[in-house]
Amino acid sequence: MLIFADEMGLKITFLGTGTSQGIPVIASDHPVCLSGDKRDKRLRVSIMIEWDNFCYIIDCGPDFRYQMLRANVHKIDGILFTHEHADHTAGLDDIRPFSFKMGKVPLYANEDVFRSLQQRFEYIFKTENRYPGAPSIEKHLITNSPFNLNDKTVIPVHYLHGKLPVFGYKIDQFAYITDIKFISEKEKEKLKNLEVLVISVVKKGSHHSHMSYEEVMELIKELHPKKSYITHLSHTLGFHKDLEKELPKNVFPAYDGLIINL
Ligand SMILES: [Zn+2]
Ligand SMILES: [Zn+2]
Fold first, then answer.
1. Distance, CA 152 to ligand 1 centroid (Å)?
2. What pLDDT is attached to residue 56?
3. Ligand 2 centroid from CA 161, angstroms
4. Nearest-angstrom CA–CA distance, 18 and 66
5. How many whole angstroms from 156 Cα to the centroid of ligand 2?
6. Distance, CA 210 to ligand 2 centroid (Å)?
7. Ligand minimally distant from the alpha carbon of residue 166
8. Cα of 53 to ligand 2 centre, how many Å?
């Protein structure tokens, strides 16, 4: 079948939708951690964005290896990082099979993220006397200006996570905003008129570096995307089936394996 370029929409796959410890939490006997519902099993947050023949991953947490196997990913065109926390970066060593197969894996991140990755994965960034099995990467430094990934324009969205600056990403009418505590009015403008907003919610009540559930619902009301999905969920938010009922109209809990096309 012939597909025209302007018909090539985005396909988003949720590779992980859990907060930093994942669900179930190790050694927890919380009912949500013991749930038999597949949608209550959440790996650390990450999404895959595909269009045409391209495939990009946002964040590369400790579950990256299993996420690639589970989603049967054979090729990636790059990884975009939101920030340097371990639940978003700790899987970087596992890009090896891709770099053996395809050569350098392009990484897109801001200066702070690269500085932190370089400290923690010094052998990956080394340019001399490299260990033969080390993954090879290609650095793409991101600032708060649009950049291109093949034929798409990516608009970084800047916000704070506690005191830490984070980049969310907008491509077409889709935006992925994780680990958010504060966003300026100016950056909010980038998130108007969206088809789909994905945004993190960890728990109800206040958190030092994340917006509360209540604050996120307010922000969604203000931005008014056609549909919103919440991710980065902790077990304290309850069972998926209950959360689904309780959320406002056009707001849905994401779950691992969920695919949306737009
Ligand atoms: Zn996180
Ligand atoms: Zn974080």
1. 26
2. 98
3. 7
4. 14
5. 17
6. 8
7. 2
8. 30
Q: Mean of the pLDDT values across residues 109-119? A: 98
Contacts of 100 (CB under 8 A, 6+ apart): none
- Ligand nearest the Cα of residue 165 is 2
Q: Which residues pair with 74 in a beta bridge?
A: none
Q: What is the largest CA-CA distance in the chain?
A: 56
Coil, helix or strand at residue 215: helix
Number of neighbouring beta carbons within 10 Å of residue 153 = 11
Residue 146 contacts residue 155 (beta carbons within 8 Å):
yes
Q: How confident is the model at residue 36 (pLDDT cuts 50, 70, 90)?
A: very high
- Record the tokens describing residue 84, joined without a space: 């340097």
Percent of the chain past pLDDT 90, that is, above it, reads: 96
The CA 83 to ligand 2 mean position distance, Å, reads 7
For residue 258, the CA-to-ligand 1 centroid distance in Å is: 19
Give the whole-angstrom CA distance, residue 237 versus residue 222.
22
Over residues 5-15, the pLDDT tens digits come to 445 699 999 99
Under 8 Å between Cβ of 213 and 237: yes
The model's pLDDT over 158-213, given as tens digits with 9 standing for 90+, comes to 999 999 999 999 999 999 999 999 999 999 999 999 999 999 999 999 999 999 99
Give me the phi and psi of 190, to 5 degrees please: -70, -15
β-bridge mates for residue 137, sequence order:
105
* 227 alpha carbon – ligand 2 mean position (Å): 24
